[in-house]
């Protein structure tokens, strides 16, 4: 379906004439009022609001001009309304409000319905609502939650809805992914726009104001910083890719999704459903695979703006007209236009005397001091302090005591083999600890009982059983003695 099969042919004429700024404000006002009056805006209320808008705009210098309508009848009605009640200012604004609403109705921005008691209501067509909502979104400096797109996509493809309506999930996941990509591209292009704007500034103060009040506030704080820190999408990105790739390899799941798409009438037949679902899954995979490239170009554009802002500020700081040039310009103007008072007033007002700075005389402190070459590094003298023999003996004794108390593989092996005696196996019940030392040895049996190097090995019971003895609880595993040479390996092979 083509665009102007939906929109009226002269729909955008409203935003291209002399009154485009007033009509743009009027469209936003209509959209806001339609959110309040959901089933139609009373015509008289909208006319009063439009009249107030035109009065306010004309106070700021935006005059509403008389534009010619397309039809002769409409033009006669439009001009007649101004000629009849054009004497009084209040009636003139009322006539302008009526004319603006008639023009918006004529080219298809609004529709006027007449209901009970011949009362008229304004209704926004569906295309007007969508277009004005987009224009309103453009005008707002909103914060973009990038993680929201990835979170919603992940929640959608891993939720219960996948089992009930898999085709719907795939279609919605593609929509969210495309919106995510559009927001990233919009961020990239917005950085380019700000970079072009900062290059047009004519003073250092303008550059600083643009950098902190516009770029930092609208781009860095609201979008770029959130993308790189708290709202980073890496948390869900690889989970989404893993799920989508599994779906692409699962033919049974894809067949079920295709049948669901035909059954729920999202697609006309299986061929269309198969093409659309494969395309949607490949698009989601492609976009998330290319996120690193998108982030890289966004970082490049951000660094380009910072460089352009710095270069512009440095250039202006070096080439701004100094106080000598300003005074010379004043004297030259006084000599040429001694009798022209208006010129002198404009000349003095154009000079920024507030930027004058007090400069002290040249002194030694103001001179540049050359950097001194750092001399070779002279390490401090290393002094060896002898350790007394008594301290060495105490340290050795303390280390031996610590080693004796440490639990080693040999101690655990001796503890188990002592309990085994001549037997080849026993249960863990016989090793129930009676004191703290035995408890430590007992806990290390689980650590060394599976590598085959402690002289024994643990065999898990087929039916797990927990034994409670006094204040200790443990699994009832079996302990088997290993053969002296390769016992564990041979036992594993024979098993």
Task: Write up what this structure looks like.
The structure is a single chain. With 495 residues, this protein is mostly helical. The protein folds into three domains: 3-137, no CATH class; 143-313, no CATH class; 404-494. Helices cover 62% and strands 6% of the residues. It is built from 19 helices and eight strands. It has helices at 20-36, 43-59, 72-84, 89-106, 126-139, 146-158, 161-164, 166-198, 204-228, 234-249, 251-263, 270-289, 291-319, 323-336, 341-350, 389-405, 409-420, 436-448, 487-494, and strands spanning 41-42, 111-114, 120-123, 425-427, 456-459, 466-469, 472-475, 478-481. Strands 1-3-2 form a three-stranded antiparallel β-sheet. A hairpin with a 2-residue loop joins strand 6 (466-469) and strand 7. Helix 9 (204-228) runs antiparallel to helix 13. The longest helix has 33 residues, at 166-198. The radius of gyration is 41 Å and the shape is flat. Mean pLDDT is 78; it is low at 69-87 and 486-495.
Name a few traits of the molecule.
mainly alpha, 495 residues, disordered C terminus, three-stranded antiparallel β-sheet
The count of β-strands is 8
The percent range for helix content is: 55-70%
- Could you say which structural class the secondary elements and strand pairing correspond to? mainly alpha
Main sheet summary: 3 strands, antiparallel
From the alpha-carbon coordinates, what is the Rg to the nearest angstrom? 41 Å
Alpha-carbon distance between the two ends: 72 Å
Low-confidence stretches: 69-87, 486-495
Strand content: 5-15%
H-E string: HEHHHEEHHHHHHHHHHHHHEHEEEEH
Question: Which overall shape is indicated by the principal axes computed on the Cα atoms?
Answer: flat
